[in-house]
Automatic annotation (TrEMBL):
Domain ABC transporter stretches: 9-70
Gene encoding the protein: mglA_8
Key words of the record: ATP-binding, Hydrolase, Nucleotide-binding, Repeat, Transport
Protein known as: Galactose/methyl galactoside import ATP-binding protein MglA
InterPro entries: ABC_carbohydrate_import_ATPase, ABC_transporter-like_ATP-bd, P-loop_NTPase
């Protein structure tokens, strides 16, 4: 699980910082949700996959291993995830 330390202020979670990062990731990964407060389980399979990917991308890993990231999602979401993976590979 990604670390929360960048979002802590005096040992308490900074909701403002966390929401700002979440909104940036939502826009960057084109996550279709009305806002960042929506429970991930209430999103489509493709958007759930994007949320999980966004959580790890916040850490800016040198290597990210994706094992069947498009399994169980619809064709449109697969195409979008493949496009995102190509963009990440270019970085």
């Amino acid at each position: 699980m990604p670390q929360m330390s960048p979002y802590l202020e005096n040992f308490l979670l900074s909701v403002t910082k966390a929401k700002k990062t979440a909104n940036v990731q939502k826009d960057k990964l084109r996550i279709k949700a009305p806002n960042v407060d929506v429970v991930t389980d209430n999103l489509s399979g493709g958007n759930q996959q994007k949320v999980l990917l966004a959580r790890w991308l916040i850490l800016e890993p040198d290597i990210l291993i994706l094992d069947e990231p498009t399994k169980g999602i619809d064709v449109g979401a697969k195409a979008e995830l493949y496009k995102l993976m190509v963009e990440l590979a270019k970085r």
